Amino acid sequence: MRRIALLALLAASWPAAAEAHPAWGILVDGRGTVYFADVDHGNVVRRVDERGKLSRVAAGKHSHDLFRDARGDRYVADVAASVDLGYRNNPLAGEIEDEAVILKRRPDGNVSVLAGSEAGRKDGKGTEAMFRAPGAMAWGTEGALYVAEGDAIRKVTVDGTVTTLADRLLDAGPPDAPFEGANRLFGLTLDARNDAYVADFGGWRVLRVAPDRAASTVLRSERPWSPVGVAESGGCLDVLEVGATPGVPLGPRVRKVAGDGKITTLATVERAK
Asked: How many whole angstroms separate alpha carbon 193 and alpha carbon 259?
């Protein structure tokens, strides 16, 4: 239950300046089946089987992230769910006005602040730390929570200690960003070495950030496609992309980056589907 509560924060933390931003939720189960969120075609969650066939597995939830627990159950972070978690701002307005916090929900239903306080950016423990607008979250192998925020990746340990893994990961104001507000980090995932992979949507690329903070580009998307979500499994990286064309959404589509660097397209959602 703790992780469901943490994910429910995500959909409420985007600045109002962003247009209808796409979903970044993508995950891979133990059999290699890919699931991803699609808010541009009726708020659905889709599945891609090993043959590239698309099917719907859930509908009617405006969700931007997905999560799979150790049992294989999949969870959706619904925008409306954040109301039940006791935010002290107006989460449905899409702005963090006074406070930005990471909440922890225990098995008994008790909800407490793991880290964060007034809006800002500051490392520290518990309420000494500050977040401005937490985005995608992912778990490391050591049990720490990693958070994409603006141009940075933050790390939150189990005791609520917040450090900045890397910042200034974005190009300053790229002239060809897909839309206003797109120049920020979107989806996030980690591999067994705790290398973080993050979608730089405004920069049309996927970045890898190692534990020693070294950053490199592992994928550059083909225009008009741009990466929004990432999921690592078995040494491969599945990338969720959307077409960044003004007023006309394309996709989403899913591409796989194999361990040898080979890139294949698994499936593309047509506009009518």
From this structure: 14
